[in-house]
Design brief:
Helix content: 40-55%
Strand order of the largest sheet: 4-12-11-10-9-5-6
CATH superfamily of the largest domain: Type I PLP-dependent aspartate aminotransferase-like (Major domain)
Largest sheet: 7 strands, mixed
CATH class of the largest domain: Alpha Beta
CATH topology of the largest domain: Aspartate Aminotransferase, domain 2
Number of helices: 16
Number of strands: 16
Structural class: alpha/beta
Strand content: 5-15%
CATH architecture of the largest domain: 3-Layer(aba) Sandwich
Distance between the termini: 78 Å
Radius of gyration: 30 Å
């Protein structure tokens, strides 16, 4: 095709979002890269191309200048404009070639890309009974914006500590305040230097898996349990070993008997997801003795124990640790709001600096402005007031859910432990013939009816042993929805269950 025909075959689109010079630039660039304009080919003079396309000379000059600056064209005034002869000859890709990866991902890359495939992220408007979600209607966003604006005003004058780079382990005033809060509320034994601020607890787990595990190491995880914890461990090449959960929490004796050589334990002693169990003191001490003897790490995930409705939050397992084997992980997602992406690790002293250096490899440091705003939020007393307010509201919502279930579904659902957290675990009661419904079918029908919940089977590990089997049931979140919506949700759930599982 002649150069003039190639360039002027299709008119440029006027009045669109893309400027005319950028359209011409793209057309010429694509023609060069695809080989339609070969190295050394002469382009029309600017005035000639103006007439051909019906555009201003400035449009053509801007396109030619950009292509020259990027190395596609060469030439000058009085010399003409040519495709640079130094460019390698382009080859047209076969028309039938389908886009795809240049080559298959390596094993580690494939593991990273698929590790969270089973994890369902929330989307769409909030509905009853979205699990593990704080009540965003209770958060003082106006106050948060004022605190944020105050820091931005400071930063506009001195470029403060908020707009530049910061320390990898986090904003020092925030670490000091978190340290004081954790000592007072959880009995966590730490100094500010042991705290590393992370982008949520998920990043904390990823960093710890990369630091503490070698390929092939065995890891104890609770099953059923939080599946997001298994993902970073699989990426690190660890072998997941499932341990059953009873009324007293993780069955430590089972883990020690079956997997004595494990290098790491992931546990949720304050509030187990999804069963709601709290690990007994006897089992906490048993786990700590075993870990100390085996020189194994224990990750204590304390994600929502601020919300205990029968008394103050329980002391952490870390407060009992004398061997330096417990790594305490917390998150602000359940107390404040998930989009904040603020979590933290309280590491044994010798691990804190390596963890901060590993954090720097991932993203240098967490954004400084939210850390500074949170520090003020805590220092000025808003944090504790917010916890007290939300604890009272969640207690009312929890009571509403349990009462509504008892009135409407008491013969069909049995409630599990409900003294801690944002969710209620329920199990199906068998009918007169000992039958129980299909929890997955109930969950699908509930979704179609506008109810958001999760079957307990969602939390089962794919590699779980038979001892880890859990009775079918549903996890119902109560913290994110108001009492009236809870009552309506229970009524809708009752209709779903009755339609899917009629009593005979």
């Amino acid at each position: 095709m002649h150069v003039h025909d190639l360039i002027g075959a299709t008119p440029l689109a006027r009045g669109g979002a893309t400027p005319l010079f950028r359209q011409l630039y793209t057309r010429l660039k694509d023609a060069i890269l695809q080989g339609a304009l070969a190295p050394g080919a002469r382009l029309p003079a600017t005035r000639e191309l103006c007439r051909l396309l019906g555009v201003s000379r400035q449009t053509v000059l801007a396109a030619y200048d950009q292509l020259t600056a990027e190395g596609y064209l060469r030439g000058g005034v009085g010399q003409g404009t040519f495709v640079d002869e130094a460019l390698p000859l382009a080859r047209q890709a076969p028309a039938s070639s389908a886009p795809g990866l240049l080559r298959a991902l390596p094993e580690r890359g494939a593991a990273l890309a698929t590790a969270m495939a089973r994890i369902r992220l929330y989307d769409g408007p909030l509905r009853a009974f979205r699990p593990s979600m704080p009540g965003l209607d209770l958060f003082p966003f106006d106050l948060w914006r004022k605190l944020e604006a105050r820091h931005l005003r400071k930063s506009s004058f001195h470029l403060g500590p908020y707009l530049g780079y910061g320390p990898a382990n986090g904003y020092a005033p925030l670490r000091e305040l978190l340290c004081a809060y954790l000592r007072a509320s959880r009995g966590v034994a730490c100094t500010p230097e042991q705290i590393v601020i992370t982008s949520g607890s998920q990043q904390a787990l990823y960093l710890l898996a990369q630091l503490l595990l070698a390929p092939g190491d065995e890891v104890w995880v609770e099953s059923p349990g939080y599946q997001g914890a298994c993902a970073p461990m699989r990426v690190a090449g660890a072998r997941i070993r499932t341990v059953p959960v009873t009324r007293e929490g993780m069955d430590v004796a089972y883990g020690a008997r079956h997997y004595p050589d494990a290098r790491l334990v992931f546990a949720t002693p304050s509030h187990q997801l999804p069963l709601g169990a709290t690990m007994s003191l006897a089992r906490r001490l048993e786990l700590l003795r075993w870990a100390a003897a085996r020189r194994a790490w224990v990750i204590e995930d304390d994600y929502d124990s601020e919300y205990r409705y029968t008394g103050p939050p329980l002391a952490s397992m870390q407060s009992l640790d004398r061997a330096g084997c417990v790594v305490y992980v917390g998150t602000l997602s359940k107390v404040l709001f998930p989009a904040l992406r603020l979590g933290y690790v309280v590491a044994p002293p010798a691990l804190a600096e390596p963890l901060a250096r590993a954090k720097a490899v991932i993203d240098m440091h967490h954004a400084m402005l939210p850390q500074a705003v949170l520090a003020d939020f805590i220092a000025e007393g808003h944090f504790m007031r917010h916890i007290r307010r939300t604890r009272d509201a969640y207690a009312e919502r929890r009571a509403t859910l349990m009462a509504s279930l008892g009135e409407r579904l008491g013969e069909r659902l049995a409630c599990g432990p409900a003294d801690v957290g944002l969710d209620l675990c329920t199990h199906f009661r068998p009918d007169r013939k000992g039958r129980i419904p299909n929890e997955a079918a109930i969950a699908r029908a509930a979704g179609e009816a506008g109810i958001e919940l999760r079957p307990l089977g969602y939390y089962a590990n794919a590699a779980a042993t038979p001892e880890c089997a859990v009775a079918p049931g549903l996890l119902l979140g109560f913290s994110a929805v108001k009492p009236e919506a809870i009552r309506k949700g229970v009524e809708a759930l009752a209709r779903v269950i009755e339609g899917q599982w009629p009593r005979r």
